[in-house]
């Protein structure tokens, strides 16, 4: 049985097209057209990936509402927005609510499928982690790879799946600059530069909610980012 994917899209033709495309690649797809339908369909069993439109029927931000609802039930399940809305405000709003990726409907099908596979690959990678790799400790940072939990000064940092793997990519090699391409590759995420920047800003904010003096993530202008030891 393929990975279980839920698609929430109110336009019938788009919903059918993406359902067919995902099914052809072996995914088990369940599609919904509204927030209420999706909530009813996912109450008893969450999927392994949720793909959401933002505007759903008469709810212009229905997808954002659904993202919040899902995040309350799982901090690590991958969530992707697939939408016609492409402003920086919409992208940042989606990421702020805990989405792992945000793509627009003009994306090519191969690129879209690569991003779906990347999100699911990170979940699968967790299950193959050996016991020696379960914890990564760098000074006051601890990453629990088995449970996808991050701790700073022994306090939990509430990271999404993408944010967790980005921190892992940086922290496992302190002082080394990761270009955006390397960060995407190491973290198994396929996003554009502006989305990486939004993720990094969000990660910094989450650490600073625990420690106002947090300054471990350096921006190396023109190159990328590094974890400062």
How would you concisely characterize the structure shown here?
By secondary structure, the chain is an alpha/beta fold. 42% of the residues lie in helices and 21% in strands. It has helices at 12-24, 35-42, 62-73, 88-96, 109-127, 161-171, 180-186, 193-210, and strands spanning 4-8, 28-32, 49-52, 79-83, 101-104, 135-138, 141-144, 149-152, 155-157, 178-179, 217-220, 224-227.
Describe the structure.
There is one protein chain. The protein is of the alpha/beta class and 229 residues long. The chain folds into two domains: 4-127, Response regulator (Rossmann fold); 131-227, Winged helix-like DNA-binding domain superfamily/Winged helix DNA-binding domain (Arc Repressor Mutant, subunit A), CATH 1.10.10. The chain contains eight helices and twelve strands. It has helices at residues 12-24, 35-42, 62-73, 88-96, 109-127, 161-171, 180-186, 193-210, and strands at 4-8, 28-32, 49-52, 79-83, 101-104, 135-138, 141-144, 149-152, 155-157, 178-179, 217-220, 224-227. Strands 2-1-3-4-5 form a five-stranded parallel beta sheet, with helices on both faces. It has a four-stranded antiparallel beta sheet with strand order 6-7-8-9, with helices on one face. A three-stranded antiparallel beta sheet has the order 10-12-11. Strand 11 (217-220) and strand 12 (224-227) form a beta hairpin. Helix 4 (88-96) packs across helix 8 and helix 6 (161-171) crosses helix 8 (193-210). The longest helix is centred in the middle third of the chain and has 19 residues, at 109-127. The radius of gyration is 17 Å and the shape is globular. The protein starts with a strand and ends with a strand. The relative contact order is 0.10. The mean pLDDT is 86.
